[in-house]
Amino acid sequence: MIKRAAILFLFFLAPALFGQQLIAIKARWMFDGHSDQLRENVMVVVEDGRIRSAGNLVPDHAAVIDLGRRP
Amino acid sequence: MPGLIDCHTHIALHGGDYDAQILRETPEFRSIVVYVPTLMVYELWRDGEMFGGASPEMKARLAKTCEEHAKSFKRALATPVTIAFGSDTFEKPGTNTIELRYMAMYGMKNVDVLRAATSSAAALAGVDAGAIEPGKLADLIAVDGNPLIDIDAVQRVKFVMKEGVLVH
Predict the structure, then answer these.
(1) Cα–Cα distance, B85 to B78 (Å, whole number)
(2) Every domain of chain B and the residues it spans
(3) Domain holding A38: CATH number?
(4) What is the ipTM of this complex?
(5) CATH classification of B2-128 is 3.20.20.140, yes or no?
(6) Taking CB atoms and an 8 Å limit, are A51 and B142 in contact across chains?
(7) What is the pTM assigned to this prediction?
(8) Chain A residue with minimal CA distance to B120?
(9) What is the pLDDT of residues B122-159, one digit of tens each?
(10) How far apart are CA B42 and CA A66, in angstroms?
């Protein structure tokens, strides 16, 4: 069971680890580099190494990284 | 200071004797200069953590330098000059976030500290990153806590992405 969980974990993270084109990062709060306020519950979508969007939508086939679930 | 304008230098580095008056009275200067205070390098040097330590005499001089530097930084905060993050602590990789603590401690609002370390620093360095907006390089970190409340949250890095690749 542990082995299976580890494999699933790697399966979901592998695209990000190896630079997959489309990644969605779920963040509780986000500072965008300019604003005075943090944005809440944002999905940052990364494509080919660059920011594609910062909003609420998760594109189809995107690998999702939920920052709230990271230790 | 006028020499900086004439030779098109864009960075006022360290800025221990920063003159706020010239900024208020010289719009041209304001528009082309970015101030990078590098507060921590003197503080760490004074505390014996840089450059192999310091003699008692040198520590006394550095204490005075730190005091003047902090005053200079506070004067700069009262002007509209752009302030960007930089540490100059090449001897101590991985400690750059200490600079953010000093910037906040000497009166910069936390949100302005974050801007100095992201969009302002990236713009100064000519890096196409520093902001989360479409088209920018995906150079991202996640920290544990809210740095607008506690600037030291930036030291608790839980996630690092460099150009879209997860590195931590």
Answers:
(1) 17
(2) 2-128
(3) 2.30.40.10
(4) 0.80
(5) yes
(6) no
(7) 0.81
(8) A33
(9) 998 889 999 999 999 999 999 999 999 999 999 999 99
(10) 39
